[in-house]
Amino acid sequence: MNGPLPTALALAARQVPVLPLRAGKVPFGNCRTCAKNACGGRPNMKHAGPCSCPAPCHAWAAATTDPQVLSSPAWAAAWRTAVSVAYHPGGAGLTVVDLDNTAAVDWARATLPATRTVATMRGEHWIYQGATRSVNAVRAGVDIKSMMAYARWLGPGVGTTAALPDVVRALTVRESAAVRPVAVAVPARAEGGECPHRTPTYLDRGISMAVQRITEARSAVHATVYRTFLAVLSTHGRCGCLTDAHVARLFTAAQAKGETARHCTDAWTNALNRLGL
Asked: In sequence order, what E strands does the chain have?
């Protein structure tokens, strides 16, 4: 076997989920069936969820440790033109602190505990044991890649992998708090100003159940968030009893599972459109 596939198979044997990258360090585009997520998406590395496409679609979510999938005819065309291998750090229980320039590397050396490092074209990857949210630009030149993200495989690196430190987790939480205030459409209140079919207590209990459903999702997070938003809006969207505070609770729960503010807004908007609200 030639090209990146042998590397991918070796990583998969170590339970590191992998996928091919084309020129430009980007995943292969979705096939026609999966274009614009018309298939419903592939929400995790185990290929669970509404999409059953055998091709390497949906970027990081296509990452797999299954050698039969990696060597399948559906992936063959991608491997023939692939220029490198990427992996899903969160799926391997890892977090990559991507340091994109010298200043970022200097910051890491002064701030973060030593760990396994991998040299990149412009900086370094610092790799820790433990998964967390993926957030870009937590500070100048620093991205955090773990759940729902991919990183290029650039070799094993040097040093001993340390446990994910609280300082890195804190960066993701701080960024999450910064992006929560998102302008979203809340359906207008029905005439009379009161919910015609539900009490405030029922609504609060429903929102709490929706938050719990999102929080307890172990896979198919994208799909779970969308279905939960759809269920909430189908019950309370037309009467107008939802407030910005209710929506913020739902968005906060989704972002704690790794969803971005943009994904939350898109899922909410799609649910509104689906219901004609």
From this structure: 18-22, 26-27, 84-87, 94-99, 116-119, 124-129, 135-139, 142-145, 151-152, 162-163
Residues 6+ apart with CB under 8 A from 53: 31, 33, 34, 39, 42
Token pair 């939350």 in the structure block, residue: 264
What is the chain's mean pLDDT, rounded?
A: 83
**Is residue 46 packed enough to be buried (19+ CB in 10 Å), middle (13-18) or exposed (0-12)?**
middle
Query: 168 Cβ partners below 8 Å, 6+ apart?
Result: 95, 97, 112, 128, 132, 144
pLDDT in tens, 51-71: 778 899 888 888 999 999 999
| Residue 30, helix vs strand vs coil | coil
Alpha carbon distance 28, 225 (integer Å): 25
Q: Please report how the helices 221-236 and 200-215 are oriented relative to each other, as an axis angle in degrees rounded to 10.
A: 170
